[in-house]
Design brief:
This protein has about 250 residues and is mainly α. About 75% of the residues lie in helices and about 0% in strands. It has 11 helices and no strands.
Length: about 250
């Protein structure tokens, strides 16, 4: 029964994660409720996110949304950011990580009300004074904390006047990069319970394909309200986890 629950958890979480980020809102709490150890639950999410994020990116790449030439630089920046975040996390206390997470999500929520034409443009992602430090900083955040990383990426790409489908493609590529490094770490340290991980992974692959197909039909005026709802839910979840001592 728990394997079926994990499959559907992966499907629903990755569908949401593809559309607006915040898939961890669903997957991690449910895995903990099923009695899966915290490190194994996080590791399973990292492994499944690595594969499902690449699956989403590949679908949009094949449909001509972005090219390798314009997006390849996202990979090393996100990987380096994730590694940097992991190093910083080993130094900072959980109290400071909590403050950083809340600050970034509140800032992203407020910024969503600025600029009426987000996701309406058709700009290509280029290396500039906003995209480079933005992606690197979000990579650090992913290595530091994680929840809301995909949501923050979508805010960044929306600010850069990139269309929604292209923003999803870039976000999925960056998520693949940062999660890949984390997944390798969890695998090598022996935290992965493969039976659970594979069930979550199969559900995530299905959710990735559902998510990109919904995104193709989603109206631009619905995107920012969806992002705001996910952002507020992330803020409340992080606060609740902090208060409960998890």
């Amino acid at each position: 029964m728990e394997y079926i629950a994990l499959f559907f958890t992966g499907m629903v979480a990755t569908t949401l994660g593809t559309l607006a980020g915040g898939g961890g809102l669903i997957s991690l709490p449910i895995m903990l409720l099923l009695g899966i150890p915290i490190h194994s639950a996080i590791g399973a999410n990292k492994v499944s996110n690595t594969v499902s994020a690449f699956s989403s990116f590949l679908y949009l790449f094949k449909h001509g949304q972005i090219s390798i030439k314009e997006s390849f630089w996202v990979i090393p920046i996100s990987v380096i950011g994730g590694i940097s975040g992991g190093i910083i996390a080993s130094i900072l206390s959980s109290k400071y990580l909590f403050i950083i997470a809340i600050f970034l999500l509140i800032f992203a929520f407020i910024s969503s009300f600025l600029g009426k034409d987000q996701f309406q443009g058709d700009q290509k992602l280029t290396i500039n004074k906003i995209s480079l430090p933005g992606l690197y900083s979000i990579g650090i955040y992913d290595g530091l904390f994680g929840p809301g990383q995909g949501t923050l990426q979508l805010y960044l790409f929306g600010y850069l006047k990139i269309s929604y489908l292209r923003a999803i493609a870039y976000s999925r590529l960056a998520t693949f990069s940062s999660c890949f490094g984390a997944a390798v770490t969890y695998i090598t340290t022996g935290h992965i319970i493969w039976s659970y991980t594979i069930c979550l992974l199969l559900g995530s692959l299905s959710g990735a394909q559902v998510g990109v197909r919904i995104a193709e039909k989603l109206k631009p005026n619905l995107i920012k309200p969806l992002l705001r709802v996910v952002t507020v839910a992330l803020i409340f979840q992080i606060i609740a986890n902090q208060l409960s001592g998890n």
